[in-house]
């Protein structure tokens, strides 16, 4: 069921017991599996907090209008840039729909100082997204157990 909020149209998601629950999209691109592991942790955290969470690769994304919150995961590529053949086109296609939504950003990197994440934070904030947590969570190479626990907590904040 749809309803009006100060930010526009909202979505009323209910569980079988009638309790409201949020719907979270966790969208990611991963070349080595590191960002995929991060995405799985975010989705697990959202589900543990009572949200319905969909874990989606770039090819599975068909808009984000039906979601209350969105988590986006992409590693740093090349000269600290978002992956441009699959992830960037998806981001561009959903960017306007991020306005007013809770959004979390995450990704892994192997070099640099995190410029790609700072640029990404600025981009989604300019689109009107409400960044969750510290704005973006980065991991050098593979996520540790501590990183995965922090990502689950980010997922819970999206719920």
Characterization of this structure:
- The structure is a single chain.
- The protein is α/β, with parallel strands linked by helices.
- The chain has a single domain (about 20-159), classed as Rossmann fold (3-Layer(aba) Sandwich).
- Helices cover about 30% and strands about 25% of the residues.
- The chain has helices spanning about 35-50, 85-95, 115-125, 145-159; strands at about 1-5, 10, 25-30, 50-55, 70-75, 100-110, 130, 135-140.
- The strands form two sheets. Strands 3, 4, 5, 6, 7 and 8 form a six-stranded parallel beta sheet that branches. Strands 1-2 form a two-stranded antiparallel sheet.
- α1 (about 35-50) packs across α4 (about 145-159).
- It is globular.
Evaluate the radius of gyration: 15 Å
Oligomer class: single chain
**CATH topology tier name:** Rossmann fold
Strand residue content:
15-25%
Characterize the main sheet. 6 strands, parallel
The top-level CATH class is Alpha Beta
What is the global morphology?
A: globular
**What is the H level of CATH, i.e. the homologous superfamily?**
Flavodoxin domain
Which stretches of 5+ consecutive residues score pLDDT under 50? 1-16
Count of helical stretches:
4
Number of strands: 8
- Compute the separation of the termini in Å: 18 Å
The secondary structure category is alpha/beta
Query: At CATH's second level, what is the architecture?
Result: 3-Layer(aba) Sandwich
What is the chain-wise order of helices and strands?
A: EEEHEEHEHEEH
| Helical residue percent band | 25-40%
For the record, the count of structural domains works out to 1
Mean pLDDT: 89
């Amino acid at each position: 069921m749809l309803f009006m909020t100060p930010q526009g149209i909202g979505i009323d998601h209910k569980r079988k017991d009638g309790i409201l629950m949020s719907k979270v999209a966790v969208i990611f691109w991963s070349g080595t599996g590191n960002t995929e592991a991060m995405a799985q942790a975010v989705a697990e955290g959202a589900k543990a907090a009572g949200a319905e969470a969909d874990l989606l690769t770039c090819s599975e994304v068909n808009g984000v209008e039906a979601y209350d919150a969105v988590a986006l995961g992409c590693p740093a590529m090349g000269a600290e840039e978002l992956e441009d053949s699959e992830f960037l086109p998806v981001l561009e296609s959903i960017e306007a729909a991020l306005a007013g939504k809770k959004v979390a950003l995450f990704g892994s990197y192997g070099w640099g100082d995190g410029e790609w994440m700072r640029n990404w934070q600025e981009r989604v904030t300019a689109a009107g997204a409400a960044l969750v947590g510290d704005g973006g969570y980065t991991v050098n190479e593979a996520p540790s157990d501590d990183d995965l626990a922090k990502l689950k907590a980010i997922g819970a904040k999206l719920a």
